[in-house]
Amino acid sequence: MGKKTEAQQKILKLLRRCGELDVADAVAALGVSEATVRRHFAELEKQGSLIRVFGGVRLPVADDSVYLFQSRAVDHLREKRAIGRVAATLIGGHERLFCDSGTTVLEFGNALAERFEKDRLTDLSVVTNSLVYSEALAQCCSVMLTGGVIRNLRKDLSGLNALQNIERYNFTRAVLGADGISSDGVLSTTDEDTSLLATAALRRSKEALILVDSSKIGVSSFVEYGKLESGKFTLVTDSGIDSVLLQKFHENGIQVLIADK
């Protein structure tokens, strides 16, 4: 393997580990000039191995086995924002929330921050494994991180420390996303770590808000973490939900709120 090929393989290895890679990090890792790194980026882009973005590169796609937060965040963005706004109206002062690291839940956090400006919410605390709340919600209320292992692709924390810390708290509500909700209300997600954290949060919460856009309803993802039940669960989704499934959820006593995008 030549030096050129070896350098490009190293770039791809770093990229698979982190999801994104900036020019400065690649220069440091390879010990070459910025111009050389940019040439490698250009050649790898021609091969379809990466996509150049401002300041660096990222992986080209997010498939079912690799969750890229940035890519998922823009999927169904209008629906997610509408869902987040509706869910945020349900929160009062003096609540203790767990918020997971999903992109729809992030929109809930952003909407909740807006409510602080308008409604003067008080004494609200959030525990989360997400690493993306610092710019909005953390400026308005107490936001505590679970700790754990950083997952760069998901922009969150996972592992035993995160799980053990969740088990220390009692929440008024868990605010969770899902990658799939089957026709019988089974909630599922892409990986075991996410499933374990969601299961623990549900167990420690009096109520649960499940925030998903309608594209995820009627399908199943990889790992189950719970099931919609009457009384404890409120599902917030958009108007694209299948009418038959909506009726079935209602018949099973599940509260479903529809967000108008």
Describe it for me?
The protein has 261 residues and is of the alpha/beta class. The chain is built from 9 helices and 15 strands. It has helices at 3-18, 23-30, 34-46, 69-73, 77-88, 103-119, 160-166, 192-203, 243-251, and strands at 20-22, 51-53, 56-58, 96-99, 125-128, 142-145, 149-151, 156-158, 171-176, 180-181, 186-189, 205-211, 223-227, 233-238, 255-259. It has a 7-stranded parallel β-sheet, with helices on both faces. A 3-stranded antiparallel β-sheet has the order 1-3-2. Helix 2 (23-30) packs across helix 3 (34-46). The longest helix is centred in the middle third of the chain and has 17 residues, at 103-119. It is globular, with a radius of gyration of 20 Å. It starts with a helix and ends with a strand.
Helix content: 25-40%
Please state the overall shape, judged from the principal axes of the Cα atoms: globular
Which class do the helix and strand fractions yield?
alpha/beta
What is the overall number of helices? Answer: 9
Which regions contain 5 or more consecutive residues with pLDDT less than 50? none
Query: What does the main sheet amount to?
Result: 7 strands, parallel
What integer value in Å does the Rg equal? Answer: 20 Å
Q: Residue-averaged pLDDT, rounded?
A: 90
Q: Give the termini separation.
A: 53 Å
Strand order across the largest sheet: 6-5-4-9-12-14-15
